[in-house]
Protein: Apolipoprotein D
Organism: Rotaria magnacalcarata
Amino acid sequence: MSLTTIAILLSLYFVGTSFAAKCPTIVTQANVDVEQYTGLWYEIFRKDNQFQSGGKCTNATYTLKPDGTVGVLNQAINSMGVYEKIEGYAVVKDPAVPGALEVNFGPNQKGSYNIMSTDYKEYSVVYSCIDIPNTNINIEFAWILSRRKTLPLATINKCNEILARLGVSSLGLSATPQNC
Ligand SMILES: *[C@@H]1O[C@H](CO)[C@@H](O)[C@H](O)[C@H]1NC(C)=O
């Protein structure tokens, strides 16, 4: 590979991450069964974001509530080494698209949670993207979750391919330590 090729690839990479144009079309996994999805998930990789910067040993617990909403409990050790948790709930906005949830952590703290692919018992790939109005900039969130504190490499590769189709490079993901 010539240096010019590498330079072009690098500039494309930075264009793709920092100044990504519009959010991609998001097609969640069909017929997601939210009940099977509940329980504990460990964060194995994430595209870093301002809310989770430096956090480790992150996990999420989802519980199906009697009213059909999903309780969300996120726990982590923050960058200062202090245990932190945040609680909220998630709702399926459109029953025809059960893989697309909206998560609420309080007033003005809403986000989307799109289950792109999961087998319920080993891995989940979650993606979210917000277009900033009147700009060419978007904010992306991406997570690779596991029922265990690790994931086999083959599964990680499969998850990376799913994110790559959305324009998320594995180079932009960071591994979340789970060794607390
Ligand atoms: C979930 O994460 C928190 C914070 O790292 C940790 O205290 C807790 O033990 C974890 N839960 C499990 C079941 O590993």
